[in-house]
Amino acid sequence: MSHVKAGGTSKNTRDSQGQRLGVKLFGGEKVLTGQVIVRQVGESKRAGVGTSLSRNYTIHAARDGVVKFETQKVRRFTGKTVRRTTVSVV
What we know:
By secondary structure, the chain is mainly β. The protein has one domain (22-89): CATH 2.40.50.100. The chain is built from no helices and 8 strands. The strands form 2 sheets. A 4-stranded antiparallel beta sheet has the order 1-3-6-5, with no helix packed on it.
């Protein structure tokens, strides 16, 4: 006879690595063309002047300069206004 009860199978053994999202360069920092400023899922921060938005919503610098973050009121389709952060390079 067995001395230990059956352990069963474990189903929660898979785990994926973190995606390293977030702000990579903060306001006031110098940036070169093509550098990543923000990695994000969805458009939580918007691309402003001097930046470009890639297909996975990563914001890159389109020119050399200094990173600037500012909040703006944006009107949604329903008419509600919400605050959104705009990232620009000046």
